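Researcher: Following up on the earlier apo prediction. This time include the ligand. It's zinc ion, with the SMILES given after the sequence.
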Amino acid sequence: MIVHQMLVGHMANFNYLIGDPETRTAAIIDPAWQPDHLLAEADRLGLTITHILNTHCHHDHVEANGPIKEATGATIHIHEEEFRYLAHFEPPPGDVSMSDGDTIQIGQLTLHWMHTPGHSPGSSSIRVNDAVFVGDTLFVNSIGRTNFPGSEPADMFASIQKLKALPDTTTIYPGHDYGPTQQSTIGEQKQLNPFWQPESLEAFMVLAQPDNDQIER
Ligand SMILES: [Zn+2]
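Model: Understood. Below is the ligand-bound prediction.
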C-alpha cells in the first residue's frame, strides 16, 4: 500500500493519497487546498486518482473536490449524514453516500468506512490494512473540537471507544498537523491522549467541555 501524507493550506491540513502499488489507482482524502499540487503529487507517484473521500464536510476538507474531480473524473464519497451538506459548498455535490461498514475497492486495497461522529454528525474514519485515516475525529494527543454546530461530545466518546477497539499497532493518520508528531498508533494514543483516558461518558464530558482550556487543541 502506498500512503502519501501532504501538508497543505494555511490550517495545517493533512491530505492523503492511498494507492494500490499494483494498479497504480488511488484515493485522495479531504482535498481542500492546492489542488494543482495534489494532482502533481499523484502524477509524480504515478498514481491515478479514482476516488475522493471526505471524512466530513467542513470547508477545509472538501473545497478542492471540484478541481480534483474535474481533472480525474473521480467519484466523491461522504457519509450519508453530510451528503446533502456538500451542496452548500462549491459544486460538485457528492456521488456516493456512505454508511458505517461500507467498503470501497481501490485496485487490490479494500477500504472500510467507519462512522465516527462527534466532531460533526457524519464524521468518518477510513481503515485500510493496518492504517486508519481519522479526519478531525482524532489528532495526535488530542481530538477534534466538539463545540461546532452539529458536534456532539457524547458521540465523540463513543467514537473514541470504536477507534480504541482497533489493534494497538494500527497507524493513525490525522486530518491536521496539530500534534507533536505527524502520525501515531492506537496503542500510543491509549497512553498519551488525555481525551482517551476517561472510561465513563461522565468523566469525558467534564474533560471535553468547550471552554476547557487545560489542553490546547
Ligand atoms: Zn472539521
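Model: The longest strand covers residues 2-8.
Researcher: Noted. I'll compare it with the apo version next.
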